[in-house]
Automatic annotation (TrEMBL):
It is a multi-pass membrane protein. PROSITE patterns: NA_NEUROTRAN_SYMP_1, NA_NEUROTRAN_SYMP_2, NA_NEUROTRAN_SYMP_3. Belongs to the sodium:neurotransmitter symporter (SNF) (TC 2.A.22) family. Keywords: Disulfide bond, Membrane, Metal-binding, Sodium, Symport, Transmembrane, Transmembrane helix, Transport. It comes from Ciona savignyi. Pfam families: SNF. The chain crosses the membrane at residues 12-29, 41-61, 82-108, 182-201, 208-233, 253-277, 289-313, 348-367, 392-417, 424-445, 496-513, 525-545, 566-592, 668-690, 696-716. This is Transporter. Its main location: membrane. One of its GO terms (cellular component) is plasma membrane. NCBIfam families: Na_transp. Na(+) binds at G20, N27, S263, N295, L360, D363, S364. InterPro entries: Na/ntran_symport, SNS_sf.
Length: 718
């Protein structure tokens, strides 16, 4: 019998669960440094402004939409069929987020366990992982005057982080072995996440009472202690002193918008999911205001805790705040542990600090696991109708994420983590998803319909005009500007970004001539693991998005995009891309035809050096096929044989397709299995083909690898 959807036992359960998810690690390690770097107290102006004009309206939009249907993420978006792909895009984003977020928690657990030792291991240079460049914090404090640790060498805290916690290798190409302690912590965290959530939200909501409130209490305790330290006020001055000139910098405003979006977690479907468990008459507007206020206050207090301690550290080292302040992992795992080590009873304060971080992380992890499990339950009647399927599904999803996490707890795992963190949970992804939500509900579903549902739920539509302005105009513009800013960002100049982007492009060049060699060069069969992983988390959702969009309208590329008039230009952009692709792709086919024709000769011409084109170096490819000149300035004459093959290929292409898709369907199916690129998402081809075909399966890359390497094995043997 079909089980009924669970709901929160009390209305306050939604508040605790949502606050626990929103108030996470970003509040403690991201907001304080952003505030310090972007004008101090002046940064609060754009931060609070974007909270009011963007974050709170987005929270109201998502929670009201989820609460009105009470049917999960997939079924909620089924109300707007052409935007159902948003649900799957959010699933992919949350898979990336949950996998990388847990890795931070494993590092935190490592520090938490190390905090119970008699001597904090990041204060000494006498450990097995230390190098000759290590400088103890206590030694530098007693023997230096106005110098930084970086001038003396590498701090003990930095070596503990780099050598003992990460075991950092030389780069992404050096994966190295797994870190046994991190693997243990990773497994324990996923096991805890499973047992907290396997009975559903009625059980996990009870845990949120502890994990959502205890960190706030501990943050207040740490803040009070920090503010009583020597030099604390110097640190707070750097944190809060308003530099109004920074507000003239456009980047500061974009950074504030990103932090608000990142912190309150709009756009990724979590608020919609959590609100779907609300009772019909839950006042989600009040809840949104409370959650936004709690998030802002916690961020502010976290800054007091962090920078009061960093001011103490700067005073003890007789250096500047700029020398000790850092962002992200550097703040939490290097700078702050250093300041703690100078306190009386450092083990106690270290344990409390990392316990705060771990509890903040657990809140977010529990919600992420609930989201993943319920996503598949809500989307499958078979899973929903059987009692034990939830427990089994939860275990499988946790185990799947655990396997993904293993790639980030190896010696080269930090580089994989950076890839996930940069591309999987990037700010532009959230703005893109938020923009899609706004367009879908405001312009396609209809705000008049939605406001009627809001009135039926809470009995009022106060602030209707302001919300309409935000949902239809202000928030979409913020999303568009943020996405545009990201597209022009220069952060992609790091070598790891270049490696990841170039590898992604090269893998898509072709099944037969690229995939086998890449497989050989990157670990043989082991290369299939990341290949299939990205197929699952990126390519397949994109295939589903494009094919469902094309199949739903069955009217061609241009007419499909006419459904969203402002994005009609996508069709023409895709046409230009495909004109370039088809022109260059056909040239490869002319070379192939040259080899094909040469293959019917009695002696293969590339096996002999007695042909007229041969030199003492004996080249068939460059001299006979290409007739290669010395450079672009020497165009030379046309190659008659290649011109002939080029014309024949275009003529055959015309006669195969001139009767339309019905006549050429068999040719398309055969070509799709052997010749086409593996997935080809993003260029509109899948959308076009889906308007004619019902199914598509591609296994060419793997088969091509078998064919090519069996032949190479024969060659090596000979």
């Amino acid at each position: 019998q079909k089980s009924e959807r669970q709901s929160w036992k009390k209305s306050i359960d939604f508040l605790f669960s949502t606050s626990g998810y929103c108030i996470g690690l970003g509040n403690l390690w991201r907001f304080p440094y952003l505030c310090f770097e972007n004008g101090g107290g002046a940064f609060l102006i754009p931060y609070l402004l974007f909270t009011c004009v963007f974050a709170i309206p987005m929270m109201i939009l998502e929670t009201s939409f989820g609460q009105s249907f009470r049917s999960g993420v997939i079924k909620s978006w089924e109300r707007i069929p052409i935007f159902k792909g948003i649900a799957f895009a959010q699933l992919v984003a949350n898979l990336y987020a949950s996998s990388s977020y847990i890795i931070i928690m494993t590092w935190i657990t490592k520090y938490l366990v190390s905090s119970v030792s008699s001597n904090l291991p990041w204060t000494s240079c006498e450990n097995q992982w230390n190098t000759k460049h290590c400088v103890s914090l206590l030694t530098s404090h007693n023997s230096t005057n106005n110098v930084t640790l970086s001038e003396l060498g590498i701090s003990a805290a930095e070596e503990f982080w780099s050598h003992e916690v990460l075991g950092k290798s030389g780069g992404l190409e050096h994966v190295g072995s797994l870190r046994p302690d991190l693997v243990l912590y990773l497994s324990l965290i996923w096991i805890a996440g499973y047992f907290v959530t396997f009975k559903g939200i009625k059980w996990s909501s009870k845990v949120f009472y502890v994990t959502a409130t205890l960190p706030v209490v501990l943050i207040i305790v740490v803040t009070i202690r920090g503010c009583t330290l020597d030099g604390a006020w110097e640190g707070l001055r750097f944190y809060l002193y308003p530099d109004l000139s920074k507000l003239m910098n456009f980047k500061v405003w974009i950074t504030a918008a990103e932090q608000v979006t990142y912190s309150i977690a709009v756009g990724n479907g979590m608020l919609l999911f959590l609100a779907s468990f609300n009772k019909r008459n839950q006042n989600f507007c009040r809840d949104a205001l409370i959650i936004a206020a709690a998030n802002a206050v916690t961020s502010f207090i976290s800054g007091l805790a962090v920078f009061s301690s960093l001011g103490f550290l700067a005073t003890k080292l007789n250096t500047t705040m700029a020398a000790v302040a850092s962002s992200g992992p550097g703040l939490v795992f290097i700078a702050y542990p250093q300041s703690i080590s100078l306190l009386p009873f450092p083990q106690v304060w270290s344990f409390l600090f990392f316990l705060i971080l771990l509890l903040l992380g657990f809140d977010s992890q529990f919600v992420q696991v609930e989201y993943l499990v319920n996503f598949f339950i809500d989307g499958s009647k078979r899973i929903r109708s059987r009692r034990w399927n939830r427990e089994i599904l939860g275990a499988l999803l946790c185990f799947f994420n655990f396997l993904i996490g293993l790639s980030m707890v190896s010696e080269g795992g930090i580089y994989v983590f950076e890839i996930f963190n940069r591309y999987g949970v990037a700010g532009w992804c959230i703005f893109l998803l938020s923009g899609c939500e706004l367009v879908a509900i405001s312009w396609f579903y209809g705000l008049d319909i939605h406001f009627k549902e809001i009135e039926s739920m809470i009995g009022t539509t106060r602030g209707k005009f302001l919300l309409k302005m935000s949902w239809k105009f202000i928030s979409p513009v913020i999303c568009m500007v943020s996405i545009y800013t990201h597209s022009n960002d220069n952060h992609g100049k790091k070598s790891i970004d270049f490696l990841f982007s170039t590898s992604g492009y090269c893998i898509g060049l072709g099944n037969l001539w690229r995939f086998p060699y890449l497989c050989f060069e990157n670990g043989g069969g082991a290369f299939l693991i990341p290949y299939l992983l990205f197929t699952c988390v990126f390519a397949i959702p994109m295939v589903i998005l494009e094919t469902s969009f094309g199949q739903s309208f069955r009217s061609g590329v241009i007419r499909s995009w006419k459904i969203i008039p402002i994005f009609k230009g996508i069709a023409f952009a895709q046409m230009v891309a495909n004109l370039y692709a088809s022109s260059s792709y056909i040239i490869i086919m002319t070379w192939i035809t040259k080899y094909l024709v040469s293959s019917v000769s009695s002696n293969l011409p590339w096996t002999s050096c007695e042909n007229q084109w041969n030199t003492k170096h004996c080249e068939f490819w460059s001299h006979e096929v290409l007739g290669k000149s010395r450079g672009l300035e020497h165009v030379g004459s046309l190659r008659p044989d290649l011109v002939l093959y080029l014309s024949l290929i275009w003529i055959s292409g015309y006669f195969v397709t001139f009767k339309g898709i019905k006549w050429s369907s068999k040719v398309w199916i055969t070509a799709a299995e052997q010749v086409t690129y593996s997935i080809a998402v993003g260029n509109g081809m899948l959308l076009f083909l889906a308007s004619f075909n019902k199914r598509n399966q591609n296994f060419c890359s793997f088969i091509s690898g078998l064919a090519v390497f069996s032949s190479l094995g024969f060659l090596a043997t000979k």
